Amino acid sequence: MTIPNLLTIFRIALIPFFCYFVFDLDTYNIYKTSHPDNLLIAGVIFSIAAITDFFDGYLARKWNQTSNLGKLLDPLADKLLVTAALIALIEWRFVPGWTVVIILSREFIITALRGMLAEVGVKATGASRLGKVKTVLQIIAVISFLFDLGWFATMVYNVAVVFTVVSGIDYMWKSREHLKF
Length: 181
Description:
- The protein is mainly α.
- The chain is built from six helices and no strands.
- The longest helix is centred in the first third of the chain and has 26 residues, at 37-62.
């Protein structure tokens, strides 16, 4: 087992702890003027998970330790973590649900498209620059909400939604020549 894969597994293992703190119903009260400590703890856990996302990919490339397991688990870990965070943001009424539907729809569509491309023999490529920017913006937005950065969090989140749509369209456009619709 490589260190990059262990970091990815660690990120997946952090998700239940993140969920415990972000969804703790004993402190859940959207009418409080300040966030409970549990929301801050969830922010720290999410931040640690986000850092492991950077390092697992960086180390896998640097040490030439890319693997099929890593190619499977890394995007899965990202989607599970971000999905949990987005659902929490709806619960806390930080973001409107329809924006989360847009983000998650893009993820499902691109995942399905990657599967279709694999079926026709197109080798999977890494995330595009737009896809990486989308992910970074989503992570910054979630962290900003969890640490109560107000208008900044909302601004970054809105930009992330736009990048989510644009990166999805870009991926579909670049894939069109490989698929017959």
